[in-house]
Design a protein that fits this description.
Number of helices of chain B: 1
Oligomer: heterodimer
Mean pLDDT of chain A: 94
Distance between the termini of chain A: 75 Å
Shape of chain B: rod-shaped
Low-confidence stretches of chain A: none
Structural class of chain B: mainly alpha
Strand content of chain B: under 5%
Strand content of chain A: under 5%
Low-confidence stretches of chain B: none
CATH topology of chain A: Ammonium transporter fold
Shape of chain A: globular
Chain lengths: 440, 55
């Protein structure tokens, strides 16, 4: 073979392996949805279990076409430095309009579909995060609208801002968030908070004096098993946060793995720090609660506390951050509950609070690293703070405003009567446990 | 509609999906939008009916 032929084979093989890598990350990420579905169905009372499942299924389903129609375009249109107005003239924004040659089977472009697919799963994850907090009283139609908003609009704008090499948070503030703690978890956590304020609590959650009643889910083992399956899914998610070396085939052959910002990274660093923060989160939550629900929530929250700097933490630091997350989550949830806000699964605390810890810990402990490329600021406390504030506002404001509009239209909340009767009984044809008496 | 191939040969082909590069893509694009909106409207009607019956 001639050197040119050898190079062609090398490039073709490199591209195929890169595409396969993101394909399998996408497949593994489906576990996040299987896990959230199990988790939320378990936390629901039996009379609402299938409604909770349908909510998860529909969120996933609606992410796919809406991300195709406009979500993917938004990422590229906000990834060149614009803050409020999308840049329709950006090269990849033009390439990824949904009617273009790049948005379908294309023999000259084998990568776009797999990248798009990985991002679809990130979007669906963002929506899934919100879905647990609103179970047992949100109307399905409003839920679909809000899920599309957070999954195919809000988070992806945040990703354009702070999870792309050209986003304004990165180029102007040196924002560093490789595992999307801010971009996915802070946004979704605070989006959920915005909805919860308008949605109101489940019937019977709070007494007249403001004290809270525990509305126990009907299947704790299903919930806990679901949380463990979500962890499997997050290996796909975090793996998908890295740029595969062969994505740069033909240019810098020794580039190796890169973060989304173009700085050097290794899969090894993600392996060390994901597992250490996961373990720390469980152990920290066990110390405070001895409750398996909070332990597994701590596992998730622990990962988010380390997510922003997964490429750089000493594993002992990642463990400590995870431990901190596991300790903080129950107290954060207690505080939010004391405000009269009914977050059925603690999503605001697990994702919002721990996401903020992750973003800020990076600013506090990871200063001084060289920037990914010349001309971009290094990691700073101020840069991370600006990013954190941006993500909180980007999540909270649309969640609050749109849910308020839906509430004014009278289609946000299931009536108290149907909550008492059971959403499954009222709206789902299939009985959930036909051989057992339905809960009253 | 039945002849939606955008290519006549595989040699050098790029976009190969049906109707690539033609107005047919716009039709499928619009169909996708409509098929997303209809179920949401159906959900609103289904919930309203459930509220009337059980609310």
């Amino acid at each position: 073979m001639s050197p040119e032929e050898v190079l062609a084979v090398v490039n073709a093989t490199a591209n195929a392996s890169m595409e396969a890598y993101y394909w399998w990350c996408t497949a593994i990420m489906v576990c996040i949805h299987a896990g959230f579905m199990m988790y939320e169905m378990g936390v629901s009372r039996a009379r609402n279990v299938l409604a909770s499942g349908v909510k998860n299924i529909l969120a996933f389903a609606f992410m796919i076409p809406t991300f195709f129609l406009f979500g993917w375009w938004l990422y590229w249109a906000y990834g060149t430095g614009n803050i409020f107005i999308p840049d329709a003239s950006a090269e990849f924004a033009q390439y990824y309009v949904p009617w273009s040659d790049g948005m379908g089977p294309n023999l000259q472009d084998g990568a776009s579909g797999v990248f798009w697919a990985a991002f679809v799963l990130f979007s669906a994850t963002t929506a899934s995060i919100v879905s647990g907090s609103v179970i047992e009283r949100i109307r399905m139609s409003s839920w679909i609208i809000l899920a599309v908003l957070v999954g195919s609009v809000v988070w992806i704008i945040g990703a354009g801002w702070g999870w792309s090499a050209g986003g304004w948070l990165v180029t102007q503030w040196g924002y560093h968030d490789v595992g999307a703690a801010g971009v996915v978890h802070v946004i979704s956590g605070f989006f959920a908070l915005g909805i919860l304020i308008n949605l109101g609590p489940r019937v019977g959650r709070f007494n007249a004096d403001g004290s809270a009643n525990d509305l126990a889910g009907h299947n704790a083992p299903l919930t806990i098993a679901g949380l463990m399956i979500i962890i499997i899914g997050f290996f796909g998610f975090l793996g998908g946060c890295l740029i595969y070396p062969a994505a740069m085939a033909g240019s810098a052959a020794d580039a190796g793995w890169l973060t989304i910002y173009g700085s050097p990274a290794t899969l090894s660093s993600f392996a060390f720090n994901t597992l250490m923060s996961f373990g720390g989160g469980i152990i920290g939550a066990y110390l405070i609660t001895k409750d398996p629900f909070w332990m597994m929530s701590g596992a998730l929250g622990g990962i988010f506390c380390a997510a922003s700097g997964l490429d750089l933490w000493y594993p002992g630091t990642a463990f400590a951050l995870g431990f901190l997350g596991g300790v903080v989550i129950p107290y954060s949830h207690k505080l939010i509950t004391s405000w009269g806000i009914d977050d059925a699964v603690g999503a605001v605390s697990v994702h919002g609070t721990c996401g903020l810890i992750g973003v800020m810990a990076t600013g506090i402990l990871l200063g001084g690293y060289p920037p990914p490329v010349e001309g971009i600021p290094a990691i700073t406390f101020t840069g991370q703070l600006v990013g954190a504030i941006a993500m909180v506002l980007l999540g909270f404001i649309p969640g609050y405003v749109v849910s308020w509009i839906l509430k004014q239209c009278g289609i946000l909340r299931v009536s108290d009567a149907i909550q008492n009767y059971g959403i499954d009984n009222a709206e789902i044809a299939t009985p959930s446990y036909p051989e057992f008496q339905r809960s009253q | 509609m039945f002849n939606s191939s955008p290519i006549e040969s595989w040699e050098g082909a790029a976009a190969i999906f049906n109707s690539a590069g033609s107005t047919g893509v716009w039709i499928w694009f619009l169909i996708t939008i409509v098929l997303c909106i209809i179920p949401v409207i159906a959900a609103i009607r289904h919930e309203s009916k459930a509220e009337k019956e059980h609310g």
